[in-house]
Write a structure and sequence with these properties.
- α8 packs across α9 and α20 runs antiparallel to α21.
- Helix content is 49%, strand content 13%.
- It has 3 domains: 150 residues, Ubiquitin-like (UB roll) (Roll); 393 residues, 2-Layer Sandwich (Creatine Kinase, Chain A, domain 2), CATH 3.30.590; 128 residues, Four Helix Bundle (Hemerythrin (Met), subunit A) (Up-down Bundle).
- It starts with 28 loop residues before the first strand and ends in a 5-residue tail after the last helix.
- By secondary structure, it is α+β, with helices and mostly antiparallel strands.
- The structure holds adenosine-5'-diphosphate (ADP) and magnesium ion.
- Adenosine-5'-diphosphate (ADP) binds next to β10, β12 and β15.
Amino acid sequence: MKTTYESHAPSTGNKPMRLPVSEFFGELTLTLSQIRNRLASEEFLDLQKCLDHKKKVQPKTADAIAQIIKEWAISKGSTHFCHWFQPMNGMTAEKHDAFIAMQSTSIHVGTVIERFSGTQLVQGEPDASSLPSGGMRSTFEARGYTAWDHTSSLFIVENGGTRTLCIPSVFVGFHGQALDNKTPLLRSVEALNDEACEFLKLVGDVDVKEVYPTLGVEQEYFLLESELVRQRPDLLLAKRTLIGAVSSRGQKLADHYFGSIPERVLAFMDEMETTLYRLGIPVKTRHNEVAPSQYEMAPIFEHVILAADHNSIAMEVMKRVANRHGLACLFYEKPFAGVNGSGKHCNWSLANDKGENLLDPGRTPHQNLRFLAIVSVILKALSEHHEVISASMMSRGNELRLGFNEAPPQIFSVYLGQELEQVFESLTLLDKPSSQTKRDINLGITQITSLTRDYADGNRTSPCAFTGNKFEFRSVGAAATVAFPMSIVNAAVAHALKEAKDRLKSYMKETSNRDEAVIRLIHELYQENKSILHSGNSYSSAWEEEAKRRGLVESKTTYEGLSVLLDARETNFLAQTKVLSSEEVLARYRVRMEQYQKRLEIENATLSEMIVEYVIPAVEHQLQLSSAVLEKALTSSLKKDLSKRIEDIEEVYSGLLKGIRDLKNFNENPISSESYELHAVSNYHAETKAISDVLRSHADQAERIVSGDFWKLPRYRELLFSHRLR
Ligand code: ADP
Ligand code: MG
C-alpha cells in the first residue's frame, strides 16, 4: 500500500497532476450522517429517536453502528482504534486497542477475529489516573471514562505506516465531572443555543431553530531545523530559549512577513495540507509571519466543536509532518526573546440554522436590529466576564508573549470600529421626544445596511476586535487548546443572553412596539458596557491608567490572572449556564497552577544545567585563552585592552557562578505538590525570576564575548535564519 502522502503527492516531472482536493477531502473521516445512511431502518429510527431526545441508543443499535464503523475503518487499513480525548493538561490523549478478539481461549482453536462492539464504541475506560483531575478524583475512584462524542467525525490517523481509528470522546469522572476540555465546550454550545433561540424569538426571529458558534482559528508557528533544536536543551525541555543573545538582524527588516515562502517550507505546507484535507480539515491560508522562521495557517471556519477538534488534530499533524521534513514545528508562545511570539487568533461568530451569520450586518432593517441586539449582548458578556475570559487564555508561554511585539496586552478591551460605535452612539437619540426619535432611530438602523466591513482594523494589538462579521480573540496562545477559552466565551454570551432576554421581556410589557423595546435594550446595554471599548494604542501608559480607572484588570502573570477563578461572584455564570460546576472550576484552577509551577521549575533546572554544561566551560576556556595572550602581549596599550577584556570576562564568570549558587536552593527544593497556593507560586516566581533574569543577561553577554570555537549551543542567528537556506 502506498503511504498516505504518496498517493496524492504533487506532480514532478512527467508524473500526472494530482487529484483536485474535492476528490479526496475527508476520505479518512466518517460522519454520523454517513453512518446513519448505512443503518437498517429499525436501528436508524432508534438512533434518530435517541438524538432527538438526547438518550442512549439500544445496545443492538450501538452494535450495528460499531459494525459499520469497523468495516469502514478496516477497509481503510486500520488495525487499531482509540478513544481520542482532550484531558485538562491541554494536550490530546489516546490509548490504542487492536480490533482483535480471540474466538476461543482453547489451546486448540485459538483463532483471532476482528471485533469491535457497540460497548467498545460508546464507552472506554482508560486507566488514565495519571492525567490531571485537579483533585476531583480520589484514589478509590481514580478511573476516568471516555464516551463517544458523535457531534464530531470519526477519523483515521496515519503515523509511521500505521492507521488508527480515532473516536472523538469526552473524558469524565465517575460522577460525570468534566475531566477534559471537550465536555465544557459541548455544554456551552447547548447553553448558548437554548438562550440564543429564546432571545432571538423575542427579537422577532420566531422560527429560529438553532444557533451555534462558528470558529476559524489562525494558527501561528515556528519552523526550525530539527538538528539545531536537538542541540538546545532549553527548546527540548522548556519549549523556549532560556538564554540566547538576540541576533543582530532580529526582525528589523520585517522582510519575512508575507514574503515568498521558502521551497522547503512550502514542501512541508503542501504535505501538511494534503494530510489535513484527507482528514476533512479545510485549510485555506498559508503565509510567512512577522518573526523570522514564523508562519501561519488558517482553515475555513466551522462549527465551534469541529473547529476545536480540527485545530488539535492539525497541531499533531503539523508536528509529525515537520519531523519528516527535518523540521521542528514549535507552537510555544514565546520561543525567542526580542521577536514576535505565536498566537492563535480565534475568529468567533454565531450562525443560525438557516446558515446566516448573526454578526453580519444584514440587508433589511430587521436583520440590522438583530445584529445590533446580538452585538450589544456580546459586549455585555465581554465586559462582565472579561476577567474569567482572560484567565482562560493564560499560561506560562502566553504570559511571556502578551504585551510585547505586536501581541495584545494583558488588559482586556474590545475594538468595535468607529463606524459601528457611531451607530450605537446614535441610538442615544432615544432620549429625545418621540416623534423625532422614531425617524432618527430608523435612520440609524437602516444606515448600517451600508456598514463597510472593517477587515484591516488599524489596531493590531487589540485583544478582541470586531472584524466586520466576527469577533477575533487574539490573546489565545498558539499552544493552547481552543476548546477551553471558547467554552468560557460561549458561557459568558449565554449568560448575558439570558439576562438580556429577561430585561427585554419586561420592556415589552411597557410598549406594544417590539422594535422600540429592542432598541431600548440595545441602547442600554451599549451604554452600560461601553467602558470595555478601546480603539487607541493598547500599549500606552495613558491607556494603562485609563483602564485602571474603568476597572479593567491587568494581570501580568498567569497566577494573578487565574486567581479570579477562586472568586465565586466572578465564576457564578459558569455554574448558572451549567458549563462548569464550582468544583470543576476549582479543578481547572488547580491544574493550571500546577502546570504553571512545574513549567517554572523545569525552566530553572534546565537553565542551571545549560549554564553549568555549556556557558561556564566556554567562559573558562576564553579566560585561559585571553590570559595566555596577555602574557605574550608586548605593547602596553595592548596589555591594557586585554586586561580590560579579561576583567569583563571575569565579571561575567563570577555573575554566572553566583547565579547558579542562588538558583541551586530552588532547584533542590521544589514546591511540594500540595501547595500550589497563590502566595507560594507567586513568591517562587518573583524570587527565581530575579535570579534567572540576571543569569540570562550574563549568559547572553558570555555568548557575545567568547570564541565561536567554545560556544557549542546553536545561536539565535542559526536557529532563526538557517532553515531558509537549505
Ligand atoms: P481577516 O482576518 O483578514 O478578515 P478572514 O475573513 O479570511 O480574514 O478570516 C480569518 C479567519 O476568520 C479564517 O479562519 C476565517 O475562516 C475566519 N472566519 C471568517 N468568517 C467567520 C465566521 N463567520 N465565523 C468564524 N470565523 C470566521
Ligand atoms: Mg485575521
